[in-house]
Amino acid sequence: MNSEETVTTDSQPAAPPSDSIRITRQGKIRCWVKHGLEFFQENPDKPLTLHTSPADVAQSTIPRLISVVEILKREYLKTLDVWAGLQTGLHQYNELQWEKRGEIAAEGEDRATTIERALEGKKHPKLTLAPYMKVTLCRKALPGMHEKKGATYQTPQTRRLSKTTKARLKKKAKQQMVTAGQK
Fold first, then answer.
1. DSSP letters of the chain?
2. pTM, to two decimals
């Protein structure tokens, strides 16, 4: 390999930060949480979207997505800087969606007959909808998302300070006022 063919990685630009994380059955929850926390440190004003892909009901990753979101919100609250006055967590927007997979009615039958057959227990109807979910987390409320059809909103959690922490904050503020008054 001559000098013209060598590739240096230093001159290549870094990949842009991803604002979307797909939750799968194989991934590690701690990796998704770590990536989410790093995303909010690097991009404080951008929303982060976590989503699943449409799958069979038996293989749904929606419960896993919910676990990742709740852990991420709790860990984010722990990273807030108390001294800077940041005590509000992440705004959460949920969207539950379905993808159509086939038809309910069998060939030559209508929907009522198919449902009747299913209730008798003779044959099971085909699964027609595959659920998937999208959760958007952000530091500030997103305009227009409250009115979006099919989206629900969860208010951010607030970090509660213990009595000792409040006392330390008061003491520190008092000391800063005294030192500012001496100058």
1. --TTT---SSSSPPPPPPSEEE--SSS-HHHHHHHHHHHHHH-TTS-EEEE-----GGG--HHHHHHHHHHHHHHHHHHS-TTTT--B--EEEEEEEEEE-S-SSPTT--HHHHHHHHHHTSSPPPP-EEEEEEEEEESSPPTTSSSSTTEEEEPPPBPPPPHHHHHHHHHHHHHHHHHHHH-
2. 0.67
